Amino acid sequence: MMRRNVSLLFPGSDHAMKKIKAADLHRWRKVRIVLLLCAVIFSPPLVGNVFPDDFRVTAFRIISKNGGRVDWDPSGSNRIAYDKKNEDGYYDVYTMLPDGSGRISLTDGKPGIWQRQNGNPCWHPSGKYLVFQSEHPKHLAVRDKWPSNPGVGVYNELWATTPSGDRFWQLTHHEVKMRLFDGKKAVGVLNPHFSHDGSKLIWTERMGKGGKWGRWRIRMAEFRIDPEQGPTLHSLRSVFTPTENMGNYVTCTGMTPDGKFLLLAGNLGGPGQDEFGMDLYLYNLADHTLKDLTKDWKEWTEGSAISPDGKKIIYMSNKGSPMDFRDKHWYWQKRTREYWIMNLDGSGKRQVTHLNTPGFPDSQHRPFIVADCSWSPDGKRLVSTAGEDMGPADKAEIHLRVGLFTFNRAP
User: Fold this and answer.
1) Domain boundaries 78-326, corresponding CATH code
2) pLDDT per position in the chain (411 positions), as tens?
3) Where are the domains of the chain?
4) Positive or negative CA dihedral for 118, 121, 124, 129?
5) What is the spatial distance between Cα 215 and Cα 259, in angstroms, rounded to a whole number?
6) CA nearest 68: which of 370, 389, 381?
């Protein structure tokens, strides 16, 4: 057998190349192609502070403490609306710039609006109005602040105001439960959102008791500006109500730019699906069909937003940090949540934030969760309701923050 020079296994010099026959060279090129493909396919995943050349976080910062439930003005004012807990223990609606400056309150101490819980604002696409939730001044168990806070919405109504908070208009009107046995239901509203053209307002409405958080449905109305009366709602209607073979909770987190689909979150897979294991769905307004986008009853996927171009969905997930659904004191469970991103049809899921993983631009020293969020108009930033766990090792103590993620590009 003829001996071969070891250098032939790594051809590169002119001297070595001359020793290779044309046929050998052809075969070696094939081998190198196979080796290259294997290196690409079987290479270890990128971890730590090494990133693929894809949509990713480049920076994260806290721009407000004790606040959350955010919405970025799509009209171009560059103002972010949110709610913040004041020293009196009640939330009020504020706006600010993305660097945290220019902070103004729209509701605190303002005449013409109830002075209890005010929050969960959303911008009209024109930038001329905001819709938010406000708590009735009198109702059953009025001293209990938790059920009526802007993230729960019991005994809340929808109101509209201007960006300066100088005028207010009540949009919804519900019967208020005043006594335990008065025969009335504890109803409320939650999570208002506008269609992209501003002609429709969508929100979630509590119908009564059921499950852990009550029974909810999705409502919609025409949003009109009357020259004399200001903002008004017309043709109020229910567009989705969970059936008996579903769970009790549903909420809307947005509408596609074409107005054909609603992005919903809820335990709609069946009676066995817990609220803490809810999925994300696309609801077709034309044929009333639901498409389950996440399909994991052990994963809590709720706070989400459709990208400005309508092609992607960013959403919160507690994947890798499961909760004990049976624990009635769930709020004390140590947990983390991150944002993931997927295509509008549910494909291409991948984690995009790494608040709880060392070595990334957004890594934090304490455990964090994330909730609702809103894109900047250009899709290059995301304002977020985040929760920083300030508790001891065996007990969670979540403090709300408004966080700002910056990406390397739009998704």
Assistant:
1) 2.120.10
2) 333 333 333 334 334 333 334 444 344 344 334 433 444 344 444 444 444 458 999 999 999 998 999 999 999 999 999 999 999 999 999 999 999 999 999 999 999 999 999 999 999 999 999 999 999 999 999 999 999 999 999 999 999 999 999 999 999 999 999 999 999 999 999 999 999 999 999 999 999 999 899 999 999 999 999 988 999 999 999 999 999 899 999 999 999 999 999 999 999 998 889 999 999 999 999 999 999 999 999 899 999 999 999 999 999 999 998 788 788 888 889 999 999 999 999 999 999 999 999 999 999 999 999 999 999 999 999 999 999 999 999 999 999 999 999 999 999
3) 1-33, 78-326
4) positive
5) 25
6) 370
The label of the residue with tokens 């905001």 reads 130
Q: What is the pTM of this model?
A: 0.85
For residue 170, count other CB atoms closer than 10 A to its CB. 15
Nearest CA to 309 out of 356, 344, 358 is that of 344
